Amino acid sequence: MFSIAAINESDTVGQWEPLAPTKEAQESALSHKYHEGLLKLQEKDYAKARELLEDVLKDPLISQIQVDNIGSDQHLLQLRFLTLKNLASVFLQQGSKFHDNALCCYLQAVELDSYDSVVWNHLGTLSCTMGLLSVSRWAFEQGLVCSPTNWNCMEKLMEVLTVAAGMVGSVAPQKEKNSSDADFVEAMNRNRLESVVEAVKDVSRNASTAKDIIDQRDISDGQDGLSLHIIGGIQSLLLTIMCAAVKMISWRKLSCSGTSYQADHLESSCLVDAAIAFCKLQHLDPTISVKTQVDLLVAVHDLLAEYGLCCAGMDGEGEEGTFLKFAVRHLMALDVKLKSQLNPNGLEGDALPKNNSGEDSVTDEPSVCDDKHSSEDEEETELEEIQSSIDSALDQAFFCLYGLKINPDSSSEDDLAVHKNTSRGDYQTKEQCADVFQYVLPYAKALSKTGLVKLRRVLRAIRKHFPQPPYDLLVNNPLDNFLDGPDSCEKILCEIYETRGSTEAILNVLFPGESGYEAFKKLSTDSSGPYSDVYGNLYYYIVQAEDISASDKYTGFVLKKEGGEFVEQSANLFKYDLLYNPLRFESWQRLSNLYDEEVDLLLNDGSKHISILDWRTNTALTQRVEMGRRHSRRCLLMSLTLANTVTEQIEIHELLALVYYDSLQNVVPFYDQRATLPVKDSTWNIYCQNSMKHFEKAFELKAQWLHAFYLGKLCEKLGHSPAKAFSYYNKAMTLNPTAVDPVYRIHASRMKLLYTRGKQNLDVIQVVADYTYDQTTKENVSSMLGSITNVRHSSSDQNNNVLDSKKENKLAESDLLDKVWHILYDDCLYALGTCVEGELKHFHKARYMLAQGLYRRGEAGDLERAKEELSFCFKSTRSSFTVNMWEIDGTVRKGRRKNPNIGVSRKNLEVSLSESSRKFITCIRKYMILYLNLLEKNSDLSTLERAYTYLRTDKRFALCLGDIVPLGLGKYLQVLTTAIRDPEVRRICGDTPVEELLEKMFSVFMDHANLLADISTIPEVNSPELSEGNLYSYIHEYIRLLESDIRLDVLETLNEKIRKRFKTPKLSNSNFAKICKHASLSWCRCILIKLASITPLPESVDTANQLVPISKGHLLYVDLQPDELLISSPDGPAQFKGLDMNWFETLNRIKNIAIRQTSEDNMESAVTVMKSTYNFYRESSCGTFPSGINLYTVTPSQAPVEGLQQAPGIVDTLDLSIPRKLLLWVYTLVHGRYSNISAVVKYCDEMKARNKRGASIVTASSQVAPPAPHSSVSSLGSSKEKSTHTESSEAHEANPYAPAVASALPHQEAGGTSTSLNTTEAQKPTTAASQLTRSSSSRAMENAQDGGRGNMNTACVNPADGSKF
User: Fold this and answer.
1) Shortest CA distance to 1185 belongs to which of 1149, 1218, 1230, 1212?
2) Is residue 1065's pLDDT more than 70?
3) Per-residue pLDDT at 1242
4) How confident is the model at residue 1335 (pLDDT cuts 50, 70, 90)?
5) Which residues of 111-125 are buried (b: 16+ CB within 10 A; e: fewer)?
6) Residue pLDDT, tens place only, 803-818
7) Lowest mean pLDDT: which of 265-269, 1011-1015, 1132-1136?
8) Is the model's pLDDT at 1356 over the cut of 90?
9) Residue 1013, CA distances (Å) to 898, 944, 966 in order
């Protein structure tokens, strides 16, 4: 409800008065109710839908609307019309008892809009169902009045007429059966029918004649005086005749049984001919859209098929197929018309309607005129639907005619209707195939390649009986002899072309010998027999209908065996055709394209998917390339002799020139741009000259920029004068001012000439100055060169005795030339810079030449500028190093740059010449090599590291750049080793610490140890500093540095990496073995130093804070001999000839020291060392370790007695390997007690196993309980311990060194507290060792106690913090 009140009047608040709803609101409510009704109809709630739609009709706005006076109420009239139409649908859904209601709705609807053929169709169908045939006929006729092309109404009208005629005709035979005049009546009817049929044929012939006249004169309106009104009248008569024929056929069908019925020939001919004539007349009207014409043909086909007549013809037996042959011919013509009459937006030119009766008219169906405003997607969909209709109609026509499904894209033959007289398509003999081909051939000749695709299935079926020419022709095949014969034929063909030789001369090249072509032609005729036309044309059209392009296959297809077979089979089709048509230009040209495409794909795919080394060893592929180039050249030469037009000659000359030029290029996969380069021998020179000759011929016929461009490049290759090459480039720029390619090429060549020959060379400088990019520069340089010329002239006029003046002039000239050289060089750089601006930023060729030019000039800052210029190709916003290059595609035209260049001489340039994939890969390789060199020259270590990593790990270009990996590594090592040695270079590299640089060197060793021996011999590196010995010296230096800094964790990781990388280093390389030995020895020394630094010394023991031993037993002593530790193995390198002297004093203090539990402060460090020592024990396998580490145990001989002197203890020297000694030492430090080595190893193994199972590691006490200490000794004597642990493979060597032992031995008190040796007595001379009594069976004691270590679940408690280990 709406109300109105004044906003600024406060006294009206609360007193608003409601207003009546407006007419717009009522209309909106009615529309809403109408749409609700439609929703209910869709939901099949018919009762509710009926209620809502009837409410709409009852509304006064709708019910009172007058058809004659609608005015502005057009939309209300349309609403009423649509409501009646949909209400009728509701009644139909509710069953037959509501048919009267539906009929009433349709009748009211047609009163409102009598131009809607759909409603008329519904009304006619409903009336026929209700038996109201007169109403039904009237409705269908009105529908045809509205839409003459509504074939649905036409078909149903014919059905109604047929039913009506049948009802009347069923009585007539009974009345005439006994009549004496029956035969006379029948004869009269047939005579009349024959007259009608003849008249229909006349109409059909006249329509064909009219169509031919229209096509020949190319009349724009398509009528040539013919009136559409007259054509419409004739069509009306033909419809009447067709209806009468249908009546007669239907009457005859009703009067006969279903099995014995056969349409009368005259009646069927009448119907078929009338249908063909009607369609021909319809096609005379150019305003009829393609879609309408297709729909007409489909409708007539369906009509004839209903009566079994779609394949009927002259004899009425279904073999002639008169209508279908006409339909096929016209459908193919419509297919061509559909493509030729498309406007720029992709719509048919004749798709717009002719009858637009006002913009305000409202219809239920979308108007065709809206098509021009539809989106591109809708336009494309419409075209696809029309094309699909044509394809479906052709499919059905061919299927009925020949039983063949010509469209291979359709899902199955079930999509096609099997009509009564459909052919089975069972071509069992050559004769049948030949008959079909004779019919198809005229259509094939008139069709485009796209149209021929529709004949593919027919041609394939025929080829099954004609797979190849007769065997006699293939024996000693003259075409194979021509393609693979001597090279002299190429020279002969060139002479024939140049002298405009005869056809006979051409044939003599193909068919040499006395018999020549005539004999071969006779053999061909005799062998082919009656099928000469089939053999002579079948393969030509098959090759156009089939997909013979290998480019459409998957990448790398041609590299495989199946790819080669595919190309060979495709080539055979052309060869078969050329055996019968040796002078067919199209076949020679397409055969050359086929071979050229094969070569292109072989090289392009080979450059991406095969490494250069593998390509060189693959002789099969290289032979295919050479053979393909030879075949392509010869086919092109034959095409050249047969070319009739200038356009054809230009095209063939260009293709020939490019085939020759392709063999000259330094590109992958044949060449690597490093060591393997094209050999400029006589063959190379001949190819250059031939390529240039054909480009010159093409340029003479028609001046094109591409020909001039290549002529300039060939001049440079052949060593012609630079002025000649520059003049060709200049012509190319003139012919195509927007092409960037000649601009780039001329200035790149100018710059190359300057840095190779231009310094102080006046002639070169003058040539370069003639083609400057900037006009101002040209003027300035010309002035300066003029002054040089004047100076020379003046010098020649002076007296020869004036030598000083000549010297001064020469110096001035040299300075001036140098200045001019720099100006011209800057001009070249500036010109190349314009070639990479804006949208040309990915034109990488110019960017490479910019970097090359700066690098070759080599002045201050040039190296850095060159590196930054080229870095664009090797970095992106997402990656610090990657290949950021795009394959140049000249077919893609981007928009002009938004900000045009300011300079007058600058142009908006664009790429006009595409590059091949092999050229692109070649560019990547060239640029990568230069970029690595620039990075090395600039000492850019970080970027070199990223480059080396990228080359090593990238998968995209792994095969293309695989051989450049050693080069990248060599450049990286050059800078890395220099940075290690030179502080200044290290500063440039970001002040990276030496240790970090050495770590990088070690990483290189781990990744590429096998390459290090060859790095120094790489031509681009060639550095004696990178010899294998020098490189390994850095690894030793890194290990020594870690050892001197006691980097135990790093050394442990380093040894683990080495062990995993080199499974058997001794067998790999002697240098590898030395590295392994050095790393293992340094790890051992670090552990030793760590243990020495955390072992409590006697003078530092605080008895108050010393941890109390938990149990009694042996005491473990250690005695180190630092002098022995300084000795290394005799085969070790100088870098690790002993222990670092900085740690000598630390080790020298460990003299006969009883090993006690370490202090609380050192406990965590001790646990860490214990883990590392256990890993060292498990993994150390490289050589022997230095002696000088002595362990022995001291056991009291008896319990102490008060008042008596205690007897000396029993000393056992432990003869263990170094790793075991270290493990036993650290174990005692952690747990404060001694245990035999077998128990210690077993304990550590269990601890490691528990860690693997996920047990948490807290401190030294959180693992398995340590083994119980020894409580008694059963026998005395010296012993050797031998572990029962079988996992370690270390070598045990006898230790001849006998440690010095104190004269006063430690003892244990009754309380279980271990008493240490007196410090002074413990360090007495070794002569006191003779006082000790040694057990000869202590090893048996140790082994006996291996199994009695006590309860493993009992933890060893650290009194200091309560932790467990």
Assistant:
1) 1218
2) no
3) 92
4) very low
5) ebbeebbbbbbbbbb
6) 555 566 677 778 888 9
7) 1132-1136
8) no
9) 55, 20, 11
Q: Find, among 741, 921, 931, the residue nearest to 854 by Cα.
A: 931
Structure tokens at 1216: 């263990």
**CA–CA separation, 613 and 1154 (whole Å):** 66
- Please report the pLDDT score of residue 1106 as a whole number: 46
pLDDT at res. 14? 44
* Amino acid code (one letter) for 1196: P
Mean pLDDT of 209-229: 62
CA distance 86 to 693: 78
- Cα dihedral 1009→1010→1013→1016 (10° resolution): -80
- Euclidean distance between CA atoms 1056 and 1059, whole angstroms: 5
Is the per-residue pLDDT at 360 higher than 60?
Answer: no
- Residue 1357: what are its φ and ψ, rounded to 5°? -95, 135
pTM of the shown model: 0.67
In whole angstroms, what is the distance from residue 1193 CA to residue 1216 CA? 13
- Position 1133 scores a pLDDT of 45
Q: For residue 406, how many other CB atoms are within 10 A of its CB? A: 24
How far, in Å, CA of 896 to CA of 907, rounded? 11
Give the tens place of pLDDT for each residue, 1268-1281: 554 333 333 333 44
pLDDT digits (tens, 9 = 90+) for 91-136: 999 888 899 899 999 999 988 888 888 999 999 999 988 888 878 8
Residue 637 has pLDDT above 70, yes or no: yes
Distances (CA, A) of 1076 to 864, 1035, 1072, 1138: 41, 11, 6, 16
Distance CA 606, CA 960 (A): 9
Which of 703, 742, 782 has the alpha carbon at shortest distance from 907?
Answer: 742
Q: What is the DSSP string of 437-463?
A: HHHHHHHHHH--HHHHHTTHHHHHHHH
pLDDT in tens, 43-54: 889 999 999 999
Q: In this structure, how many other beta carbons lie within 10 angstroms of the beta carbon of residue 925?
A: 23
DSSP 751-791: HHHIIIIITT-HHHHHHHHTT-SSHHHHHHHHHHHHHHHHH
1263 vs 1277: CA distance, rounded Å: 34
Round to whole Å and give the CA distance between 1089 and 1087.
Answer: 6
Greatest CA separation for the chain: 171
Cβ proximity of 740 and 912 under 8 Å:
yes
Please state whether the peptide bond connecting residue 669 to the residue before it is cis, i.e. omega within 30 degrees of 0.
yes
| HEC readout, 1103-1121 | CCCCCCCCCCCCEEEEEEC
Angle between helix 1070-1094 and helix 1028-1044 axes, rounded to 10 deg: 10
Residue 1350 has a pLDDT of 34
How would you classify the pairing of strands 1115-1120 and 1210-1214? unpaired
Planar angle of CA 228, 229, 235, nearest 5 degrees:
85
Contact status, residue 1282 vs residue 1247, Cβ threshold 8 Å? no
Q: Cα–Cα distances in Å, from 862 out to 826, 867, 935, 1027?
A: 12, 8, 13, 30
pLDDT digits (tens, 9 = 90+) for 775-805: 999 999 888 888 776 655 555 555 554 555 5
Crossing angle for the helix pair 917-937 and 941-953, nearest 10 degrees?
150
Spatial contact of 881 and 837, defined as CB atoms under 8 Å apart: no
Locate 1197 and state its tokens: 């001989």
- Alpha carbon separation from 650 to 288, 366, 694, 975, 1081 (Å, rounded): 42, 51, 9, 54, 78
Position 352 pLDDT exceeds 80: no
The H-assigned helical ranges of 511-584 are 516-528, 532-545, 561-580
Measured in degrees and rounded to the nearest 5, phi and psi for residue 348 equal -65, 145
